[in-house]
TrEMBL record:
Upper classification of the organism: Bacteria, Bacillati, Actinomycetota, Actinomycetes, Propionibacteriales
Gene behind the chain: ctaE
Name used for this protein in its record: cytochrome-c oxidase
Molecular-function GO term, any one: cytochrome-c oxidase activity
Every Heme-copper oxidase subunit III family profile domain range: 1-192
Reaction(s) catalysed by this chain's protein: 4 Fe(II)-[cytochrome c] + O2 + 8 H(+)(in) = 4 Fe(III)-[cytochrome c] + 2 H2O + 4 H(+)(out)
Length: 192
């Protein structure tokens, strides 16, 4: 039920992001000269690196799920022996990668604000911060979910099937956030 509920919830969240994409394209269509000026301030290389880290975090998250399905919570070898890692290590790495992404977004925001691209300044700033900000909020909620999941692994004495299902539900959410970002990255940074 948890996995099905997560999928239903993510479907409704998808509609929310669809509305943000629609707003972005609509405002872009009526303000094309504004887009030409303001998109020149975006740092494509920085955003591409940040995107790569987020996309790779989906793989680390999935490796954690594989370990959860095997009932392997913690590593059985040394920390540098990646093949002995369990759910915890993979989810901690995923958490760090997600935190890196959020810090990268904050850095980009600071740079754009310095260039006078802000929400009240013009339509581009408004739609840029709304779309990326709501995504950033979703990433942050995903980081909280990782912390809660990790906390459960330290509190419980025995890792059960229900906890593995929770790890799977967290991974669904994380993969969703990553796929949405790929769409946002293509829309905001690549499509001119």
């Amino acid at each position: 039920m948890v996995a099905v509920g997560t999928i239903i919830w993510l479907s409704s969240d998808l509609m929310f992001f669809a509305a943000l994409f629609a707003a972005y394209y609509t405002i872009r269509d009526v303000s094309s000269t504004l887009w030409a000026n303001d998109t020149s301030h975006l740092n494509l290389l920085f955003a591409a690196i940040n995107t790569t880290v987020l996309v790779l975090s989906s793989f680390t998250c999935q490796w954690g799920v594989f370990k959860a399905e095997q009932g392997k919570v913690a590593r059985t070898g040394k920390i540098w022996q990646v093949n002995t890692w369990g759910l915890r290590e993979w989810f901690i790495l995923t958490y760090l990668m997600g935190a890196y992404f959020v810090a990268g977004q904050a850095t980009e925001y600071a740079s754009l604000i310095h260039e006078h691209i802000t929400i009240p300044n013009d339509a581009y700033g408004t739609v840029f911060y709304l779309t990326t900000g709501f995504h950033g909020m979703h990433v942050t909620l995903g980081l909280v979910a990782f912390l809660l999941m990790l906390g459960r692994t330290y509190i419980t004495k025995k890792f059960t099937h229900e906890q593995a299902v929770s790890a799977i539900a967290v991974s669904y959410y994380w993969h969703f956030v990553d796929v949405v970002w790929i769409g946002l990255f293509a829309t905001i940074y690549l499509i001119k």
